[in-house]
Design brief:
With 156 residues, the protein is α+β, with helices and mostly antiparallel strands. The protein has five helices and five strands. It has two domains: 75 residues, Ubiquitin-like (UB roll) (Roll), CATH 3.10.20; 71 residues, [2Fe-2S]-binding domain (DNA polymerase, domain 1), CATH 1.10.150.120. It is elongated.
Length: 156
Amino acid sequence: MSGDATMRVEFALNGRPVSLDIDPAERLLDTLRYTLGLTGSKEGCGEGECGACTVYMDGLPVNSCLVPTFQARGRAIETIESIPPESLGAMLASGATQCGACTPGVVMTACWLRKHPELLKTHTAREVMAGNLCRCTGYDGIVDGIRDAMNEKGTA
């Protein structure tokens, strides 16, 4: 917290209304993890470089470590906790992740790509995943998992 001033912020979180009094400078990542107890989004770098903290804001992937919570006002925020376990099957079966640090961001971006297969007409899966760093697995397993997930959906 950077001071005593707070502001009211209301937004939808995983389909449910949220109303909070928060420090205007608090990061969305910290609000999710420490105020709301949703610890699925991870802090990797804290600088928007690794993607471990990826959430959807109005349906688009964003790095929650770079978003002040007040910018969520009136928006729809979705976290890794909103992803149904059955959506994770191909990613898990492919061995796409190991240590788990990058997993939430990788899954959020992969699920977003799965919802927007038209992106694969102009970009490769590897390009779409470029904002997600993985230091354990490398990207072949992740890209294989995405390909398998897209095939499950019948879009590859």
